[in-house]
Design brief:
The protein has 126 residues and is mainly beta. Helices cover 0% and strands 50% of the residues. The termini are far apart.
């Protein structure tokens, strides 16, 4: 079982930056593929970014390709999502997800993850 706690959300102005963190309570964090998803009101949860258990493979959604970076610090059992040039359409609840896996890649579907955090609200004003 993996417990995840997100932090770093909040209010930001368009053009600003935020760094989201996700702390995992699990012994085998280095065996976890990690992902970030977001859900805006009235919309489905969508993929934002993912990183493999080794950190060598990452995937970023097209709408954030040039504006975000995902990284992990296994010494801290934490994964980060750095977002820049924020837009009002980035407003959503951002969720962290984890999956203990033997796979060396990353996952982009929410159905591929077994553990979820409670989410952190990101609100971007124009």
């Amino acid at each position: 079982q993996v417990q995840l706690v997100e932090s770093g959300g909040g209010l930001a102005q368009a053009g600003g930056s935020l760094r989201l963190s996700c702390a995992a309570s699990v012994r085998a964090f280095s065996s976890c593929a990690m992902g970030w998803f977001r859900q805006a009101p009235g919309k489905e949860r969508e993929f934002v970014a993912a990183i493999s258990k080794t950190g060598t493979n990452v995937g970023i959604a097209e709408f954030l390709t040039d504006r975000s970076t995902i990284s992990r610090d296994d010494a801290k059992n934490t994964v980060y999502l750095q977002m820049t040039s924020l837009k009002p359409e980035d407003t959503a609840v951002y969720y962290c997800a984890a999956r203990i896996t033997a796979y060396w890649g990353f996952y982009t579907s929410p159905n591929d993850y077994y553990n979820w955090g409670q989410g952190t609200q990101v609100t971007v004003t124009s």
